[in-house]
């Protein structure tokens, strides 16, 4: 597996991966009206600046993506067909290294309360809920995780 910076030519593939990952991870937790669309994800990824996002490739195929802004991980998605391959572990470690190398001593991220698989990943890496929560809409809450780097 290779982790490399996101390039403009990756935008469409990353947007497709993110839509598939959301459907796999959040179906039943997020109503259809709030699921991301390919167009809105393409718009989001077109605005990513250099040094903010990296992707994982396996034999030239997109396997996952992670995005960092300052001391916060804003996105971490893995191709649903690749769950269990350790890609999320590698991307999370990469993001932690990027933040540490940039001089951050503490890192933050948000995740859906109901996403127990993702929460278990973060906790394996030493992340802990810090008690801050936000309700995005009725019945959909995020909790914030924090980790010393």
From TrEMBL:
<keyword id="KW-0808">Transferase</keyword>
<protein>
    <submittedName>
        <fullName>GNAT family N-acetyltransferase</fullName>
    </submittedName>
</protein>
<dbReference type="InterPro" id="IPR000182">
    <property type="entry name" value="GNAT_dom"/>
</dbReference>
<dbReference type="InterPro" id="IPR050832">
    <property type="entry name" value="Bact_Acetyltransf"/>
</dbReference>
<feature type="domain" description="N-acetyltransferase">
    <location>
        <begin position="1"/>
        <end position="149"/>
    </location>
</feature>
<dbReference type="GO" id="GO:0016747">
    <property type="term" value="F:acyltransferase activity, transferring groups other than amino-acyl groups"/>
</dbReference>
<dbReference type="InterPro" id="IPR016181">
    <property type="entry name" value="Acyl_CoA_acyltransferase"/>
</dbReference>
<dbReference type="Pfam" id="PF00583">
    <property type="entry name" value="Acetyltransf_1"/>
</dbReference>
<keyword id="KW-0012">Acyltransferase</keyword>
